[in-house]
Amino acid sequence: MSHITSAFKDAVHDSQACFRRLLTAMSEPGRVVELDRCHGFGEMMPATSQVLLAMADNSTPLWLSAHLQQDAAAVENIHFHTGASTSAVESNAAFAVISQQDLQQMEQQALSFNEGDEEYPDRSTTVIIETDSVDSGASFVLSGPGIKDHTQVQLGSLPAWLQVRLCEQAEQFPLGLDFIFVSGQQAVAIPRSTSVEVAPCM
């Protein structure tokens, strides 16, 4: 039984629109952008599906967390609409997607994504994390390129190890992971060049 569903109505125009919004998110860390051009594949959030539609192709090694790997609708639609392989190992993945269900059960040592090297730091993995909110929950102060002084962002219910990982990120620059947090149709990026601190409690 096929699980193929529709993607972008206008493949070129919608893909370009999503790509521009993602560029905005990456160049202005902490800014929430709306990705509203199609529904999600299977149980995958709409924003996650649109990030992959805009940025993945048949040369993109893609890693999916366990819940998504078992989601036939998500996997079939990714293969059909992008051509990307979903069988990449963590250390080889250009993109990785962690579902909200899997995130709460994972531990930091279980992840071994590519953080780039001194010669090719840009070959690191971009990690897409599905969370329950990008306007409430764990709060962080961001600073660095693309941010005037500082900005604050909330990223929902994140496990403690991931909060620590985000705060340690800038120490490795230019190495490290680029993160895109998604919730529903919304996305917010924290590139590896961004300094992250847990926001003080008021």
From TrEMBL:
InterPro entries: PhnH-like_sp, Phosphonate_metab_PhnH. One of its GO terms (biological process) is organic phosphonate metabolic process. It holds the Pfam family PhnH. Keywords: Lyase. It comes from the Bacteria. Coiled coil: none annotated. SUPFAM superfamilies: PhnH-like (SSF159709). One of its GO terms (molecular function) is lyase activity. NCBIfam families: PhnH_redo. This is Phosphonate C-P lyase system protein PhnH. It comes from Photobacterium sanctipauli.
